[in-house]
Amino acid sequence: MSDFTVELKIAEKGEVKTVRDEAVRYLGYKKVTPDENILNLIGECETELLNAVQARVCYARTDIKFLGENVVDIGFGEVHSKNLYKHLQGCHGVILFAATIGIGVDRLIAKYNRIKPVKGVILDALGSSAIEYWCDVAELKITADEEKHCSRFSAGYGDFSLEHQRDFVRCLDVMRKLGITLSDSLLMTPTKSVTAVIGLGGNARTCGNKCMSCNNRNCIYRE
Q1: Could you give the angle at the alpha carbon of 111 between the alpha carbons of 108 and 116, nearest 5°?
Q2: Separation in Å, CA 40 to CA 20, 34, 36, 44, 208
Q3: Are 154 and 38 in contact (CB under 8 A)?
Q4: Shortest CA distance to 88 belongs to which of 198, 210, 196?
Q5: Can you say whether residue 29 is alpha, beta or left, with left for phi > 0 and alpha for psi between -120 and 50 degrees?
Q6: What is the pLDDT of residues 6-30, one digit of tens each?
Q7: Which candidate, 143, 148, 146, places its Cα nearest to that of 9?
Q8: Which pLDDT belongs to residue 18?
Q9: How far is it, in rounded angstroms, from Cα 21 to Cα 38?
């Protein structure tokens, strides 16, 4: 396992936003526009959620080694994954990445799940859009000096085993730096958190849709 220099960034005020179109999609609306009451609730929830956000990201750069067919070392030992191996072709290094928008969002969702469930559902969808927005912002900052980079690729995509969540959590020291803990079933708390690997290199693959690497073809979040 490599030695890591882990860097931490904290979001500036106003740097995290919700993406209403994405949240509406997460709520199950496809080609149907929500009615006025739902739209008003979404507006209320956006304000409350953004007031609860405490966004952070930590990351580390490390070398990549291609050890054999569909086997790659991204700093924490051998990873057997055809999808990740293919995704990282043309890369000379990677960024190990973890981000969260904080436990306050979880607490807000839990509160409304008890007293007004419809707002809990809306807040959950808005939180999902906000963590993806924050990841995009953080990724652009972190890779600003890189010649080229791949899109984020998380444990659980395709055949990149979710068991590797433990490696991200350990190597990036996310419990201390971000307050992220991992359950026995490999779920993160705060729930609006992401771990991922970003490939670096002049020949990095920049095309493709991350959803195409996922085996769940019926997911409502599928792009």
Answers
A1: 115
A2: 12, 10, 6, 6, 35
A3: no
A4: 198
A5: beta
A6: 999 999 989 999 999 999 999 888 7
A7: 143
A8: 96
A9: 13
Determine the length of the chain: 223
> pLDDT value at position 2?
59
Q: Do residues 132 and 16 make contact, with C-beta atoms less than 8 angstroms apart?
A: no
d(CA 152, CA 149) in angstroms, rounded, equals: 9
Kindly list the domain boundaries of the chain, sorted by start residue.
7-213
Pairing of strands 56-63, 7-10: antiparallel
Highest CATH level, class, for 7-213: alpha beta
Residue 137 backbone phi and psi in degrees, to 5:
-60, -50
SS (H, E, C) 157-198: CCCCCHHHHHHHHHHCCHHHHHCCEECCCCCEECCCEEEEEE
Q: Cα–Cα distance between 55 and 192 in angstroms, integer?
A: 10
Grouping H, G, I as helix, E, B as strand and the rest as coil, residue 31 is coil
DSSP state of 11: P
The pair of structure tokens assigned to 13 is 């005020």
- Helix and strand element counts for the chain (H, E): 7, 9
Q: Which positions of the chain have pLDDT values less than 70?
A: 1-3, 206-223
Measured CA to CA, the distance from residue 109 to residue 124 in angstroms comes to 6
- Residue 213 pLDDT: 47
Give pLDDT, residue 211.
Answer: 52
